[in-house]
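User
Take a look at the entry that follows and flag anything odd:
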Amino acid sequence: MVLVECNNLPQLAQTAETIKRVTFVNIASDPEMPGKNIRSLFQIDRLDVNSEQEVFETLSKWEEAKMKLLERVRFPLLSPDFIDTPVMTNLALSTLRVHKLLVN
Protein backbone atom coordinates (compact mmCIF):
# COMPACT_ATOMS: atom_id res chain seq x y z
CA MET A 1 0.00 0.00 0.00
CA VAL A 2 2.94 2.34 0.58
CA LEU A 3 3.95 1.95 -3.07
CA VAL A 4 0.39 2.78 -4.10
CA GLU A 5 0.22 5.87 -1.90
CA CYS A 6 3.65 7.19 -2.90
CA ASN A 7 2.98 6.82 -6.60
CA ASN A 8 -0.64 7.98 -6.56
CA LEU A 9 -2.08 4.85 -8.14
CA PRO A 10 -5.79 5.04 -7.26
CA GLN A 11 -6.87 2.11 -9.43
CA LEU A 12 -4.28 -0.19 -7.84
CA ALA A 13 -5.29 1.07 -4.39
CA GLN A 14 -8.93 0.27 -5.12
CA THR A 15 -8.00 -3.22 -6.35
CA ALA A 16 -5.91 -3.84 -3.23
CA GLU A 17 -8.80 -2.73 -0.97
CA THR A 18 -11.19 -5.04 -2.83
CA ILE A 19 -8.84 -8.00 -2.40
CA LYS A 20 -8.48 -7.27 1.33
CA ARG A 21 -12.25 -6.96 1.71
CA VAL A 22 -13.00 -10.20 -0.16
CA THR A 23 -10.24 -12.29 1.44
CA PHE A 24 -10.60 -10.80 4.93
CA VAL A 25 -11.12 -14.07 6.81
CA ASN A 26 -8.10 -15.76 5.20
CA ILE A 27 -5.80 -12.78 5.66
CA ALA A 28 -6.86 -11.87 9.18
CA SER A 29 -6.70 -15.48 10.39
CA ASP A 30 -2.95 -15.56 9.82
CA PRO A 31 -1.30 -15.24 13.26
CA GLU A 32 1.87 -13.99 11.54
CA MET A 33 0.05 -10.89 10.29
CA PRO A 34 1.51 -7.77 11.93
CA GLY A 35 -0.80 -5.97 14.35
CA LYS A 36 -0.83 -2.78 12.28
CA ASN A 37 -2.15 -4.70 9.27
CA ILE A 38 -4.75 -6.51 11.36
CA ARG A 39 -6.08 -3.19 12.66
CA SER A 40 -6.38 -1.84 9.12
CA LEU A 41 -8.27 -4.97 8.01
CA PHE A 42 -10.77 -4.67 10.85
CA GLN A 43 -11.37 -1.01 9.94
CA ILE A 44 -12.71 -1.88 6.48
CA ASP A 45 -16.39 -0.93 6.51
CA ARG A 46 -17.79 -3.46 4.05
CA LEU A 47 -16.06 -6.76 4.68
CA ASP A 48 -17.17 -9.60 2.43
CA VAL A 49 -18.27 -11.99 5.18
CA ASN A 50 -21.38 -14.10 5.69
CA SER A 51 -22.07 -12.51 9.06
CA GLU A 52 -20.51 -10.31 11.71
CA GLN A 53 -19.93 -13.55 13.61
CA GLU A 54 -17.13 -14.34 11.14
CA VAL A 55 -15.48 -11.03 12.00
CA PHE A 56 -15.71 -11.79 15.72
CA GLU A 57 -14.43 -15.37 15.31
CA THR A 58 -11.53 -14.20 13.17
CA LEU A 59 -10.53 -11.59 15.71
CA SER A 60 -10.84 -14.18 18.49
CA LYS A 61 -8.46 -16.54 16.68
CA TRP A 62 -5.91 -13.77 16.27
CA GLU A 63 -6.24 -12.80 19.93
CA GLU A 64 -5.79 -16.45 20.93
CA ALA A 65 -2.53 -16.56 18.98
CA LYS A 66 -1.37 -13.43 20.80
CA MET A 67 -2.26 -15.00 24.16
CA LYS A 68 -0.17 -18.06 23.32
CA LEU A 69 2.77 -15.74 22.73
CA LEU A 70 2.15 -14.11 26.10
CA GLU A 71 2.65 -17.51 27.72
CA ARG A 72 6.30 -17.17 26.73
CA VAL A 73 6.73 -14.13 28.99
CA ARG A 74 8.28 -15.08 32.33
CA PHE A 75 5.94 -13.00 34.47
CA PRO A 76 7.57 -13.97 37.79
CA LEU A 77 10.70 -12.16 36.58
CA LEU A 78 8.82 -8.87 36.09
CA SER A 79 8.85 -6.30 38.86
CA PRO A 80 5.60 -5.87 40.82
CA ASP A 81 5.43 -2.21 39.74
CA PHE A 82 5.61 -3.18 36.08
CA ILE A 83 2.91 -5.81 36.55
CA ASP A 84 0.64 -3.38 38.43
CA THR A 85 0.89 -0.63 35.87
CA PRO A 86 1.43 -1.61 32.20
CA VAL A 87 0.35 -5.24 32.50
CA MET A 88 -2.80 -5.00 34.60
CA THR A 89 -4.05 -1.73 33.12
CA ASN A 90 -4.00 -3.22 29.64
CA LEU A 91 -7.49 -4.67 29.20
CA ALA A 92 -6.28 -7.48 26.94
CA LEU A 93 -3.59 -8.47 29.42
CA SER A 94 -5.75 -8.31 32.52
CA THR A 95 -7.79 -11.36 31.55
CA LEU A 96 -8.24 -14.36 33.79
CA ARG A 97 -5.82 -16.34 31.65
CA VAL A 98 -3.01 -13.81 32.15
CA HIS A 99 -3.87 -13.67 35.84
CA LYS A 100 -3.26 -17.43 35.98
CA LEU A 101 0.12 -16.92 34.32
CA LEU A 102 1.02 -14.31 36.91
CA VAL A 103 0.14 -16.53 39.86
CA ASN A 104 1.91 -19.64 38.58
Q: What stands out?
A: The two ends are 43 Å apart (CA to CA). DSSP finds seven helices and no strands in the chain. The helical segments are 2-6, 10-22, 24-28, 35-42, 52-70, 80-89, 96-103.
